Amino acid sequence: MGMGNMVDYVRTEMRTFAHKPFGAVDSLVLSELAYIRMPAAVPLFGSARSIATVPIWKLLQAEHYPEMFCTGSQYDASRHDLLVAVAESPRFRGLRVGEYAERFDEHTETQFAAVTFDLTDCDGIQPDADSARTMLYVAFRGTDNSLVGWKEDFNMSVRCPVPSQSQAVEYYRSVDERASNPFAAHPVRIAVGGHSKGGNLAVYTAMKTQSDHISRIFSHDGPGFMREVTRSHAFHAIEPRVEKTVPESSVIGMLMSTVSRYTIVETNVSGIMQHMGLNWRIENGEFVTKPELTPASRLLDRTLDAWMEQFTDQERACAVDQCYDIIASAGYPSFAELADHMGEALPTIAQAARKTDEATKTLILNILKAFPITAAKSLFEEWPAADGKENETV
Fold it and tell me: pLDDT tens digit string along 93-144?
C-alpha cells in the first residue's frame, strides 16, 4: 500500500478492524463524510426511540448527488469518491449512518450539523460475541461555505459557548441516552470527533458531558478555545484523551488555546489548503507524520495569539460583527455564491463599508494595523533562537 490520501486509503485498505483497530485515519474518514448533505433516506435526529440508521450504501442515490455534493456552482467530486469507496470497502462495508441533524439560523448565527455512524456490524469491530458492544461514532460537521458558518467561528474567539457548541452537547446527550437505554441490545461505547469546527465541538462535548460512554475524542485541525475554558477543571479532565491531528503548516488548528499534545501530518499541498483533510498524506494505513510544525506556522500562531490579546473581547466582537455585516450586505449567503457574483457584489460591499460609523472604522483600522507590527515583533523574537542554532553548528 503506497502513499496517498484518505480516498486512496479506503480504496486500498483491505484489513478489517480485527487486524487493524479503529484509529485516527478512520476518524478522519468519518469526519469527512459528515460534510455530505445527507439524502432523505438517512433517518433524522430524534426520529426514533432507539438510534435509527441505514446501511451506508443507501446513500448511493445518483438523483440526490447534486444536493449532497454541490457547493454553489462547484461539485465536490472528492467527497463523492470517498463515499463510493467507503460503501465498497471490506473495512467499512458494514457501516450504518443515521441521526442526521442540520441547523442553520442567520439570526442566531448558527451553522451546525452532526451525524451518527454505527460501526457495530463492521467486520472485526467486536472482539468476540461474549463482549459485544454497540460502537458509535458521533461526527460533527466543520465549517461549511456559508458566511454564517465562518461568522460563528469568529464568535468562538469572544464567547463560549456559541450555539453550535450547545447544540453539539444536546445532540450527544440524546444519542447517548437512547443508545444506552435498558432495552439496548449491547452496552455502548461512543467516539466523538470532527474536522475543523467539528473537532472543537467534539472536544467541547466531551468536556461538558464528562460521559463514561465516550471512548475516544478526535479533533482534526480543530480550533481551540478561549483561555478561560482551557484553564477549567472540566477541560483538564478530558485533555489527555484528546487525539488531535494538525497539518504541518496548521493555521486553524492552532487558533486560540488548544491541547498541548498533537500529531503533525504531512500534506501534499501548501498554505491554507493544508487544512483540508483530503490533502493529508497516508501510508500503510497511518498518517505520514512530521516532527514539528513549519517555522511559518509557529510564527503565525505566536503572532495571532499576541495580536488578539491586544484587544478586548468587546472590541474584537465589534470588529467581527461589522466586517460580517459589510460582506453580508451583498445578499449572497455563501462564499461560493459571492465568488460567482463578485462583479455585482463589490459595489454593494463598498457602499456598506462607506456607511460604517467613524468609531468602528477606526477600531477596524487599528486592529488591521496592529497585525504587521505584532508579526514583526514575533519574527524578531524567533531570530535569537535561530542565530544560536547556527552558531552552534559553526
Answer: 999 999 999 999 989 999 999 999 999 999 989 876 556 689 999 999 998 8
Residue with cell 453580508: 328
Contact between 289 and 263 under an 8 Å Cβ cutoff? The reply is yes
Report the alpha-carbon angle 222-223-226, nearest 5. 145
Q: Which residue would you say has higher pLDDT here, 362 or 6?
A: 6
Q: Is the pLDDT of residue 388 over 50?
A: no
3-292 topology per CATH: Rossmann fold (3.40.50)
pTM: 0.88
Q: Hey, where are the domains in the chain?
A: 3-292, 311-393
Please report, as a single letter, which amino acid is at residue 84: V
Q: pLDDT (tens digit, 9 = 90+) per residue, 270-284?
A: 888 899 999 999 999
Instruction: Please enumerate, as own/partner, the contacts of 329-338 that have beta carbons within 8 Å and a separation of 24 or more.
Output: 332/147, 333/106, 333/146, 333/147, 333/148, 334/71, 334/72, 334/144, 334/145, 334/146, 334/147, 335/72, 335/145, 335/146, 335/147, 335/150, 336/71, 336/72, 336/73, 336/74, 336/145, 337/72, 338/147
Q: What are the cell numbers at 182?
A: 435498558
Given this model, what pLDDT does residue 132 score?
A: 65
Read off the C-alpha cell for 179: 443508545
